[in-house]
Amino acid sequence: MGRIRSVYLLVPLILLTFVSLFLGLKDFPGQARQIIALSRLPRVLSIILAGMSMSIGGLIMQQIAKNRFVSPTTASTVDAAKAGVLASLILFPQASSLGKMVVVFFFALAGTFLFMAILRRIKFKNAVFIPLLGLMLGGIIDSLTTFVAYRYDLIQNINSWLMGNFSMVTQGRYELLYLSLPLLAVAFLFAHQFTIAGLGEEFAVNLGLNYNFIVNLGVTIVALLSALVIITAGRIPFLGLIVPNVASLYYGDNLKASITATALLGSVFLLAADLLGRVIIAPYEIPIGLTVGVLGSMIFLFLIFRSEGR
Amino acid sequence: MIELRQVVKRYGDVNVVDHVSLAIPRGKITSLIGPNGAGKSTLLGVMSRLIKKDGGEVYIDGQELSQWDHCLLSQRVSILRQQNHVDLKLTVRELVSFGRFPYARGSLQKHDWELVDQALEYLKLTDMQDKYIQHLSGGQRQRAFLAMVIAQDTDYILLDEPLNNLDMQHAVEIMRILRSLVNVLGKTIVIVLHDINFASCYSDYIVAMREGRVVQEGDQDLMMNAQVLKNIYNLDFAITEINEQKICVYY
Q1: DSSP H or E segment with residue B210
Q2: Which of A162, A195, B22, B148 fits a disulfide with B4 by CB distance 3.0 to 4.6 angstroms?
């Protein structure tokens, strides 16, 4: 399998960005500039950032949990974040997005650390069992959230918050996502360290790596990235699971070599899924959570059968 | 020098390592031998700081383990344990290059890559350096891990049964490489071995353990003695000399 330099992934990224910006714009003569500035550009930028954030989050999770099927959605990060959304709606209904984001972040962090703590205690480290464990833990958190949301009559509210959807992203409602840029930069800087942590604690200690620091740093980055994406765009399933796996097929697991490709691939995949959702039943839209879910589950099944076949 | 004083490691009520005091001679190969469950691997783990001890002290070049800076210590001591489950898709070259992490922290310089190349060559992995480690046989993978440790270029190299999974040819090859690391580069190697004849032919110093204690230690020549070995293993040994090497027969 020949390696394609990861910078070439910029080509589809730029292409899809242009299509996404200008698609259907000719129906609004004279207003094009305004539409692009207020709606299209924020949408494209937030998709690019969210795509990178979720796939890098998944990549880091998979390395530090030493499991290919772990991601923010299967490690209860996202479910805990949802509980955080509920908590912020009940406790601080007047809070700004940034305020809500802080609450959601701490919930996501707590949920992920809980999962990692359970993982450390478990001796049975089966590749399929661990993500199932994360799903179960997520299910428990989710049912608690639903119970409380029902009491406060907030179920609809919280579901609309979490429906992954970029059509509501307009100028002034997505800028929080820019906070993911410094986080992604940290992830790039520590790429080498994450891979060594992925070799296991004994290897890491032998090589003089501060293992616990790197694991905690990774979990914190993942929780922050997830919280940012959930607050601005909602829940985007499968992305953090699939993109790192596809990138690994071509670029291996040395993060230094694969992290750029993973980030770009995440954006490309999300842009494509978003375009598809906009085109299929135009002039209406399918929420991106749905298109990503359908496309993602197909690729996921393919990956599972592929690994079984070996 | 590595020096142990009254080192204790407990699992539950059992002292797996029971008040062991030991000085590892510099610039030599020291073999740890003894029956299963004697505490050899645990002792090696404690020496390398991978296993936390419950008592006693370990001095590396005169400084206790707890006083050492984590990163500096990894430029001085390296360890390869028995079970190495690595599920990552890494090439042999990438894996070996991680051995330079204690020095280069992520950005390897020309000198680092030279040492990586050298380690690959030492273990005859140059031809397969771009292969993924999961695609290697058990023995090849073992050699790749060893190459990583050699690229780490430490004064002390601790190896826990490195000959596991290796066929005879490669086992002998590895021992010869270790021998030359000691003879040419002046490294100090501590190695847990199961095959008593490998210990006899390739080590300078032998430490015999049983039930968590050091039963006897001494130069290879003195230790390869029927009475001494009987004490350790509870077996009758016949020792003969072939090509000036002491070989035990105990089957």
Answers
A1: strand B205-210
A2: B22
Averaged pLDDT score across all residues of chain A: 86
DSSP B91: B
Residues 183-242 of A with CB under 8 A from B: 191-193, 195-196, 198-200, 202-203, 205-210
How far apart CA A154 and CA A162 sit, in angstroms, is: 12
Instruction: Tally Cβ neighbours within 10 Å of residue B183.
Output: 12
Residue A199 to residue B99, Cβ atoms within 8 A: no
pLDDT digits (tens, 9 = 90+) for A116-155: 888 888 877 777 788 888 889 999 999 999 999 888 888 8
Largest CA distance in chain A: 65
pTM: 0.88
Fold classified for A2-9+42-309: ABC transporter involved in vitamin B12 uptake, BtuC (1.10.3470)
Q: Which of B74, B84, B85 sits opposite A208 (nearest CB)?
A: B74
B140 interfacial to chain A (CB closer than 8 Å)? no
Give me the amino acid identity at A211: Y
Does B42 lie at the interface with A, CB-CB under 8 angstroms?
no
For B157, the 3-state DSSP assignment is strand
Asked if A208 lies within 8 A of B75 by C-beta distance, the reply is yes
* Domain ranges within chain A, ordered by starting residue: 2-9+42-309
Nearest chain B residue (CA) to A199 = B86
Q: Which of A59, A260, A68 has the alpha carbon at shortest distance from B134?
A: A68
Q: Which residues pair with B22 in a beta bridge?
A: B4
ipTM, 2 decimals?
Answer: 0.88
Its sign, for the CA torsion A196, A198, A204, A210, is positive
- Is B79 touching A (CB cutoff 8 A)? yes
Percent of chain B with pLDDT over 90: 55
